[in-house]
Task: structure prediction
Amino acid sequence: MSFLAPAVLSFIAASLEGAGLAVLLPLLKGIADRDFTFLTQVPLIRIVISRIDPGNTHPQSVIFGILLASVFLSFVGSVIMRYLASISVSFHLKKVSDRLRRKIFSRYLIFGKLYFDRNNLGYLHNVLIGFTTQISLEFKNLQEAVNRFFSLVVYLGLMCFISLKFTLFTLAIFPVFNFGLKWLIKKIRKNSQSYAETYKKLNESIFNILSCIPLVKIYSRQEKEEEAFGKLSNNLRMVEYSLERKNYLLVPIQEVMILSAILVLVAIISFLLAKHNVDNVSSFLVFFYLLKKTSINFNFLNMIKGTFAVTSGQINEIINVIDVDKDKFIIPEGEKVFSGLDSHIEVKNLNFSYTGITDVLSNLNLSIEKQKITALVGPSGAGKSTLVNLILRFYDCPPGTIFINGTDVREFSLNSLRRHMAMVSQDIMLFNDTLRNNIIYGLDRKVGSGELAAIIDKSRLAECIARLPNGVETYIGDRGVKLSGGERQRVSIARALLKNAEILILDEATSSLDSHTEKLVQEAIYEVVKNRTSIVIAHRLTTIRNADKIAVLVDGRLIEEGRLEELLEKKGKFYEFWQEQKFY
Result:
């Protein structure tokens, strides 16, 4: 219904143009015969003459003026209606583009973490912004196609009025030429797919390089990366040129076909006119004019096909995002509301694989007690972060493998579950926003200055904030680039502390801190984890001295668990880790 108004306006515009052309018939006949009195029999003309020239002293001049004014007003009205139709369709296309962006963005927000692990963020950004904008621009051609369709209907109606026989010749010849472009449309559609794929590769390259500039510089890869980027950019240039070359070829081929069709029709009509010795030449002058206009508008179908062919690649990419399928890894959720941890989190016979081939976690069994500190220890790739991500429901676990309060975690709604969880990750996530907004992010309540100051003090950020030009209102840059590594980690800790969640997950929370700051933050964390259920991932084993339970994972399997002293006495795998770090 959104595009009904532009269609109606286009129909009115075509009708007004048709009315103007219809008035041309008596105007040209009167000029050719030097006599307009034949129009005095028309009731409307007679009424207008009586108003303008009551004495009927100059009927010829009055009728001539009426006809000229009618033609002028009809064509001006047509132009105005077309303008209104164009801005109306532009408004609706912008609205559709906005809705499409919102739809894609909302889809992104419900996709599982594994989807983002497997797709480049540069590509996702381009689908969201680049492709939606480009489709909106291309689809403006549809408005022109609608205009031409209605004009074509009007022109054909007038041509039928002048000569049904000649109009049937037109309808027989033009479609034959028009459908001759099918092969070119097919090539354009194929090129569009190549364009979307090449554009995707270029965006991935841009994101990869710009996000790893220090790495590029330290390995002196500027020239190599410039060369690689140049090749991708050149590939895109060639694909774009090929696409536009074929797209631009539509018009000249159509013009040649149209000219050929017109010449054939002119020859036929001229022969018939000469054979039948037709006197009303003015009508056929209008017919030839309409024939030219009709020939231009007959390609509206190719315009529509061309538009869809050019945008087919981008449309397919957007459809791939919007469609729900197994590649989106959407986390299923139940209807139960999680109101808090009553007993414990239990992992039973958990097997998990990212690829479906190799298990990251194998037959894992672990109990995480309420208001206790459970530490996860093991080498890189042991599955520690994977287990935490499964508990957080970033990835979907198999049914009947993770239970909270004896209930399968899959039965809880995601929002109610995560509302009771907070996380401090070694991969620090900060927005390009003020320090204050980063600390209070995700809270639905107001945070008073006193509460914020207390959290800042506990996370040892006071000295850092004192150095910032605008204190907590200072913008910290992309991913907090204006802060040091230790400061970024402490901001993340402050955010988790402020959430005051009963389940706290610390993924190597002190990894970016110097020894002095680590001691201070560790003391603050120790105070916060009291009376909370805490899961701590640690590589530096001194950070888990106070853990109530230490679970040792190797190759996705739980091989040991117990308190620090118990594991050291066992002299098993944990003892080996401890010895390697020389912390005893």
